[in-house]
């Protein structure tokens, strides 16, 4: 009778199983056709996420399984640059289908948990990019301590990454966009410690420390606020990243202090926000390869974190709740970065700007409740030279249709 005791009611009863279908069209049309005129793909993804409950007892055990299947809907055009939706081989060819199976073992003591295996960390210092068909994953262990009210403590170690357009684990690297550092150095692993504290309903603070072994240290301080002001509420998001080289300095010298903040006024369905970012120090802000920096400005065209860059961003959001178009959300944003320095282009100063539009609709009721439609458009420009430059001037369109069944 040992087996029924282990696979008890909580393990089965508390399970969560979902199937998400995700249709993704990606079209980045470059202004200068060097070396490709466009990055374009269309794919259909299926994401099965099965999470067990925990066995009973002082120490509970469980298992999470993630199954992924992706299908190429556009065919194979070697004249298009890789978009990140599908794997691409050395001949720039996409497969007709792709997929894999990932798993995570977990255990729970009181309210605290440990997960070992496939992880999708969403922290300021290590952020699993969800911006393509499948989310970026890491291999490692994550401890979350939840024993003190309003406080969460995190400990994380990862040694491999599975990128969003890959089915293989590989070593973790520093992102070396436009030769910002000495090399796109590989590391043996990354460890992180962090704390989140909810001071009140309107104030939350985060502290994190990460060490990409022999490459860089990064500390993060963040504060989010929300206060009622009579006619509406004022929301703030302030972030500081402090980064320096570590150990063997495999990527060379790293010295960066990145400051950012955004303040928004929300009145009924309208929100108007103004943000500012500035990069200080002798290098750009370091981030992990193929991951977005966790700054407040989630631009799809560029990261706006170059050496010495100063960025202003003006954003407007409208939520159609309580109208005939309930479920629809609209966003428009203009961002401009100036005083950009590129190490291999010494002596020159550059600038960039981006216009972003985002229309997101999720059917709120009826037979088709939950189906989501999202369209994003970006016009991105900079005055950097064309040769060997990432984030080239482009007009970009992304269209997503998704739906999730919960079982």
From TrEMBL:
Pfam families assigned to the protein according to its UniProt record, in alphabetical order: OprD
GO CC field: membrane
Keywords, comma-separated and alphabetical: Signal, Transport
GO function terms (MF aspect): porin activity
InterPro entries named in the record: OM_porin_bac (IPR005318), Porin_dom_sf (IPR023614)
Highest rank taxon of the organism: Bacteria
Record keyword Signal present: yes
Gene3D superfamilies (alphabetical): Porin
UniProt KW Transport keyword: yes
Family: Belongs to the outer membrane porin (Opr) (TC 1.B.25) family.
Name this polypeptide is given: OprD family porin
Organism (species): Acinetobacter bereziniae
């Amino acid at each position: 009778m040992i087996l029924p005791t282990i696979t008890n009611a909580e393990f089965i009863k508390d399970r969560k199983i979902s199937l998400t279908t995700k249709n993704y069209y990606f079209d980045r049309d470059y202004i200068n056709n060097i070396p490709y005129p466009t990055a374009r793909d269309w794919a259909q993804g299926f994401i099965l996420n099965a999470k067990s409950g925990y066995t009973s007892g002082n120490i509970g055990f469980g298992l999470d399984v993630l199954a992924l299947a992706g299908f190429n809907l556009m065919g194979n055009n070697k004249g298009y640059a890789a978009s990140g939706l599908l794997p691409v081989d050395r001949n720039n060819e996409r497969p007709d289908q792709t997929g894999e199976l990932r798993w995570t073992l977990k255990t729970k003591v009181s309210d605290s948990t440990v997960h070992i295996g496939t992880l999708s960390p969403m922290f300021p210092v290590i952020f699993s990019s969800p911006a393509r068909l499948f989310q970026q994953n890491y291999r490692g262990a994550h401890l979350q301590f939840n024993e003190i009210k309003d406080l969460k403590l995190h400990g994380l170690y990862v040694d491999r990454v599975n990128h969003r357009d890959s089915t293989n684990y590989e070593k973790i690297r520093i992102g070396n966009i436009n030769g910002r550092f000495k090399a796109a150095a590989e590391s043996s692993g990354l460890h992180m410690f962090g704390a989140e504290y909810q001071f009140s309903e309107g104030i939350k603070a985060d502290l994190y420390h990460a060490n990409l072994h022999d490459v860089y240290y990064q500390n993060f301080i963040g504060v989010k606020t929300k206060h009622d002001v009579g006619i509406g509420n004022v929301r703030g998001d302030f972030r500081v990243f402090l980064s320096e080289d570590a150990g063997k300095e495999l990527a060379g010298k790293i010295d960066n202090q990145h400051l950012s903040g955004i303040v928004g006024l929300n009145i009924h369905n309208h929100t108007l926000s103004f943000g500012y970012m500035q990069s200080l120090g002798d290098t750009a802000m370091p981030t992990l390869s193929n991951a977005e920096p966790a700054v407040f400005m989630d631009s799809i065209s560029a990261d706006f974190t170059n050496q010495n860059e100063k960025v202003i961003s003006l954003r407007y959001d409208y939520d159609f709740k309580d109208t005939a178009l309930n479920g629809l959300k609209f966003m428009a944003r203009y961002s401009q970065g100036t005083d950009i320095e590129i190490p291999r282009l010494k002596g020159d100063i550059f600038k960039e700007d981006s216009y972003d539009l985002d229309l997101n609709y999720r059917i709120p009721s009826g037979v088709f409740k939950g189906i989501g439609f999202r369209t994003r458009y970006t016009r991105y420009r900079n005055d950097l030279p064309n040769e060997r430059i990432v984030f080239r001037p482009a007009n970009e369109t992304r269209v997503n249709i998704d739906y999730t069944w919960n079982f």
